[in-house]
TrEMBL record:
Entry annotated with the keyword Transmembrane: yes
Ranges that cross the membrane: 20-42
Origin species: Filobasidium floriforme
Gene3D superfamilies named in the record: Membrane associated eicosanoid/glutathione metabolism-like domain
Gene Ontology CC: membrane
Main localization category: membrane
Subcellular localization, as worded in the UniProt entry: Membrane
UniProt xrefs under Pfam families: MAPEG (PF01124)
Protein name in UniProt: Uncharacterized protein
Protein keywords: Membrane, Transmembrane, Transmembrane helix
The keyword Transmembrane helix is assigned to this record: yes
Length: 159
């Protein structure tokens, strides 16, 4: 057990081991999960031959169901659109050898912002919730831009 714990990094502190690159597939999974849930909820309405075609709702599908399906699609699209910026920031930060603590804090904060964004987007029903969703979106995006700039500045110092 102790060897497994050491291999998984469970014996060191959270900020002693660089987890930022591992956040890349985790963030991709968070972005892809809404699509998977959408496909499951659609069942036979999902056309796997034309996965990007407009959803064929049944006449009996109520507006709440349609809205939830459309929100899942929007969450997935937004996550995929933002994923490259995050991945580039993580890779640039690692290349620039930014401190592990900063890399982990950024990566885990970004991942949390995407989870929060997804949850709020799916369940929002008020203007205040939409504002919270936007704050979580911009927090993650601006964090990625900040890390990219910090990486660029560090690389300029090294040259």
């Amino acid at each position: 057990m102790s060897n497994t714990a050491t291999t998984l990094g469970l014996r060191s502190g959270l900020f002693d081991r660089n987890l930022s690159v591992l956040a890349i597939p985790a963030t991709f999974a968070v972005a892809f999960l809404p699509h998977t849930v959408k496909v499951i909820l659609l069942g036979d309405r999902f056309d796997n031959e034309k996965p990007r075609a407009q959803t064929n709702f049944k006449v009996t599908d109520d507006s709440i169901y349609r809205e939830k399906i459309n929100r899942l699609a929007a969450i997935h699209t937004n996550g995929m659109e933002n994923f490259p910026l995050f991945a580039a920031a993580v890779l640039a930060a690692n290349f620039a050898r930014l401190p592990t603590r900063l890399l982990n804090t950024f990566s885990l904060s970004y991942l949390a912002s995407r989870i929060l964004f997804s949850f709020i987007y799916y369940s929002q029903s008020s203007t205040s919730a939409s504002v919270a969703r936007s704050v979580s979106y911009f927090g993650g995006m601006l964090g990625s831009l900040w890390v990219l700039v910090k990486s660029g500045n560090r690389l300029n110092q090294l040259l």
